[in-house]
Amino acid sequence: MSYFKKRIYEELGATDEDLKLTVYGWNHDNDLDYKVEMPAFKEDRDGNIVIPVYDIHRNLIYFENPDYTGRMGTGRAMKEVEIIRYATPKTIKDEKTGEEKTCKYKYPKGAESRPYFPRLILEIYEKHQQLDTLILTEGYFKSFKACMHGIPCVGLQSISTYRDKKSGAMFKDIIDLIERCNVRNVVMLYDGDCFDISQKALQHGKDLYTRPAGFIGSCENIRELFKDFDVDFYFACVNTQSHDSYPKGLDDLLIAMRGKEKEVVDDLMHLSKPTKYFFRENCRRKMTKVYNFFCCQNIESFYSLHEDKIGTQEFVFKSTRYKYDHEKQTVVAILHRNLANFCRIGDDYYESVLIPNQYGQIDAELKGRKKGTITDDFGKDAIHKIPKYKAFCNVPNHIQYQAVIHDCYNLYNKFSHEPVEGDCEYSLTLVKHIFGEKYYEMGLDYIQLLYQRPTEMLPVLCLVSKENKTGKSTFAKWLREIFGLNAIFVSSQDFSENFNFHWAGKLLIMCEETELDKSFVMDRVKSLSTADKLTMNRKGKDHEQVSFFGKFILCSNNEEKFIKAGKNDERYFVLKVHPIETLDPFFSQKLYAEIPHFLNFLNNRQLSYPKKLDRMWFPAKDYRTDAFERVIAANRTKAERDIRDFLHDIFCEYNFYTIYDGKPAFLMDFNYIQKQLLNGKYDRDYLRQVIEDMPWRHYEKNGERPCKRFKVPFWTEGIVTDGVVISFTQHVGRPFVFFAEDYLTDEEFETLKKTKPEYFE
């Protein structure tokens, strides 16, 4: 017998008549509805059970097919939502924790969760029948079996799937059912094992409160969603002791009571009578009895309930570790829950504190604590239970992480993602948008190096744009999501302050709306970008030197003057980011979901840029962008801009140049620049320094610097012909040689070379 037949026909006792269902489909090609006669459950070729999903109006639910490309073989653009119950549960690896989990159901990727309405519910809704009590339970087969015996029951996907994802409210179809059928009581029915502890959690030292807290939280949240409606809300679960077979779910109880199902129905639906087969509490006003039911009000009652399973083992309850003490005949705390966040490093005590940032993310910081404060809060014995380390270290590793190395506390945090095969089109789209087509491969290398070789030196990445909605912040937040607590957002003020402990051990130090216009701040960022050591400064503590490998990312709406940079700066990778034409409101969620797939992609690609002898991984010339040239131009002094404007006019307006060392150039000496060109406005020493920072060469002949005649063109009125003509002034001096290629764009330089030079050397 197949799994389908055994589960549906033999266990649930359903007939073909029970499975009959009428629903309505939608033809997306011609936008027409059509009637469908189909079974409530059907069998696929592998013996799995297929569960169609529809709403309270019998309309089949559709979702966008993620595999559809328009080509043959990729299916239809819109697919019907169908849930698969595997005949043989599959073992999958959790993308975040790496733990293996047993998977019984397959839910379509991209489809929203929906409640399950058996035929009885549909008929009650359509006939506007009075419905005093509505049962909600976890599971499709439970609700189907209940409705087979006259219990109006709606199935939920899980205990935590009870609200619409977009609105955050209770599913609209359930609200419509309550209002149309004048429902007076809603019973949330859980399985009978809801108050059991997790044996796996006990073995692995995890918090035993997590499981009951999930059921309590589920009940409390559903209760809150019904507060605006005139209904009494009940918590209930199956009494597994009510039958020798220890039934867990409602379907198990009805199967165990075959032939006596009416007893179960009456026991569940008559809320005013004592119950035999269920535990039930009215929670409309308060949840106290539910907390008492789970024995979570204190550690003594919790241990008493689960003593037979816990015994003398150590266990964790509400983040505190306990063990039963035979001498004291009671449960005693071994380590207070909050002490797990404390450590002593050298002579000082610290607490790891999670602090929300402005983006809704969590940053972790070590905050200094006094010994007296700890003993006041946790008692004198607490000091002896706090782990002790000799010093700080800062060792990044995203693959084989160590929290403690040679008895030193690692400032670097554990990487929280594991690579998983899968598509990462949104991630690649974002990288291509930020870095552009020209620097796309370098952008992938940049992120790959962060992940695989975090200690390598990389340039300061600067993302600039005057426009909004460019994706700069999305990119920064995405990197924060990838590298977690090893990435931090700071303000430009943080760079100028003495205390740097909160960002000293980070891989990524990101700053938005940056204007590092103070030279000492800029110099500090530049020097740190190539530093391998950092003096860590903590308030009230001695300075300490640690390894430093931080990479800086600066985002700004000021495209030209967010930093001060000169032509010799080789540490800035400046990118102009353009606005995104079409905004997807769910882009970030899709991006974050792809992180394991993107990491797998990086692990399977070759770096485009091999390691060079430069300090930085990438050659400076390869990331000298047009955007960076605009930053340099904006940072030039007035004197330099005047000289550059004059040279630009010489080459482009007058098309005048001489040939020096085979290249177009213009000659003029210091006296001409200072007196005639700039009218003596600038001090000679200052002007010499300005010229020193510009590209030029001394005019030399036979290894000497002789005096040389040079001509400067100007426009004058023509005597023979009408209009203006070019005339020249003659000058003598030891000139500088300014090459045209240093002062013109590539296009302007090519145009200039097509003209005839004034004279040759």
In short, what is this structure?
By secondary structure, this protein is an alpha/beta fold. It is built from 25 helices and 37 strands.
Description:
By secondary structure, this protein is α/β, with parallel strands linked by helices. It is 29% helix and 25% strand. It contains 25 helices and 37 strands. A five-stranded mixed sheet has the order 10-9-11-12-13, with helices on both faces. It has a five-stranded parallel sheet with strand order 25-26-29-24-30. It has a five-stranded mixed sheet with strand order 33-36-32-31-37. A hairpin with a 7-residue loop joins strand 27 and strand 28. The longest helix is centred in the N-terminal third of the chain and has 16 residues, at 210-225. The protein starts with a helix and ends with a strand. 29% of the residues are buried.
Mean pLDDT: 85
What is the general shape? elongated
Strand count, sense and barrel status of the largest sheet are: 5 strands, mixed
Helix share, percent: 25-40%
Secondary-structure topology with pairs:
Blueprint: H1 3-11, H2 16-19, E1 20-27, E2 32-39, E3 42-43, E4 49-52, E5 62-64, E6 78-80, E7 82-93, E8 100-106, H3 119-126, E9 133-138, H4 140-148, E10 153-156, H5 172-180, E11 185-190, H6 199-203, H7 210-225, E12 232-238, H8 250-256, H9 261-269, E13 278-282, H10 288-293, H11 299-310, E14 315-317, E15 320-325, E16 330-335, E17 342-345, E18 348-356, E19 362-369, H12 371-378, H13 382-385, E20 388-389, E21 391-393, E22 404-405, E23 408-410, H14 425-435, H15 440-452, E24 460-464, H16 472-483, E25 487-490, H17 492-496, E26 508-511, H18 519-528, E27 533-536, E28 544-547, E29 551-556, E30 572-576, H19 587-593, H20 595-603, H21 626-634, H22 638-652, E31 658-660, E32 663-668, H23 670-677, H24 684-692, E33 697-698, E34 708-717, E35 724-733, E36 736-739, H25 746-753, E37 759-760
Parallel strand pairs: 9-10, 9-11, 11-12, 17-20, 21-23, 24-29, 24-30, 25-26, 26-29, 31-37
Antiparallel strand pairs: 1-2, 3-4, 4-7, 5-6, 7-8, 12-13, 14-15, 15-16, 17-18, 18-19, 22-23, 27-28, 31-32, 32-36, 33-36, 34-35
Helix pairs in contact: 4-8, 14-15
